[in-house]
Amino acid sequence: MEKAEIGLIGLGTMGSNLALNIAEKGHRIAVFNRTASRTDAFVENAGTLRDMVVPCYSLEELAAAIRPPRPIIIMVLAGKPVDEQIAALRGVLSANDIVIDAGNANFRDTMRRFSELSDSGLTFIGMGVSGGEEGARHGPSIMVGGTEQSWKRVEKVLTAISAKFRDEPCAAWLGTDGAGHFVKTIHNGIEYADMQMIAEIYGILRDGLGMGPKQIAQMFAGWNTGRLNSYLIEITAKVLAADDPKTGKPVVDIILDRAGQKGTGKWSVIEAQQLGIPATAIEAAVAARVLSSIKDERLAAEKAYGNGGVTRISADKDALLDEL
Ligand SMILES: NC(=O)c1ccc[n+]([C@@H]2O[C@H](COP(=O)([O-])OP(=O)(O)OC[C@H]3O[C@@H](n4cnc5c(N)ncnc54)[C@H](OP(=O)(O)O)[C@@H]3O)[C@@H](O)[C@H]2O)c1
To answer: How far is CA 114 from the centre of its chain?
Structure first.
């Protein structure tokens, strides 16, 4: 059978969508997942792309299925699982093969992994992937860090599967070792700040001007047709317009006001502080997420000190909306 162009380990949300995207762009892909039943389910659901997928049930089988030098994307949970997977791959790969971590890694871990692999003959790529599940399936933004030679081996596939902006592929080699994951981290940090601004503007409209979710949804939909046009503004309008089918209430009013975080916002702030660069909007966004997550403490504080009530803004409403 014709060898696969690339391999992928980890058929979770991101990995399965990325694998289908690669197959759809005409590149044969060999896949492996720790839990074999997930590989079976993936292949069963691959539909017309089934012939472009080579299911593998051991790392040896995976290595044998790929054209050397073998690029293998690891898309498993970030942290220890990535180190375990790299250690296991050392036993089955040969000189010049390329291990690609496509999860959300801290770029300092990527630099460490790059250097740890350097005496093995294997090459390491740290690859930031942005766009979530939909992006992975139909066109993510791809930020690559590694050697230029390893980028050349994967450039064709990554360029083909990436999003396109004005006909330019959103996939690029950004420098050595941790460069791709660094850019992805700061990109996420900027997104944290963006989301916090959206939340605060929603708060001003709701509490300051007494507007309801549907009215605010219309404001955001309007902004999305102008220079603020973006994915986040677009989905904010959609979310605010949505009702919960069970209760009939606006979805935004029944979602618990408690947000979590995975780390990239915090890492952005840490790196900004290390470099002595003010990143105040990201710092404020990370702090707001932390405050949001400690709901029990917020409720206890409210019990002790009251919630301060809601202050309506007395300024001219239309003028204020123009300002926003
Ligand atoms: N979801 C997003 O929108 C998004 C966006 C950008 C980046 N990312 C990053 O992409 C990576 C994967 O996220 P995901 O959302 O696809 O996760 P997911 O759906 O939870 O899938 C996790 C995958 O990791 C595998 N896995 C977990 N622990 C493992 C271990 N110790 N050894 C081997 N395999 C292990 C799982 O295999 P089993 O089937 O055997 O459990 C599964 O294939 C993460 O780094 C995440 O931060 C996610």
So the answer is: 21
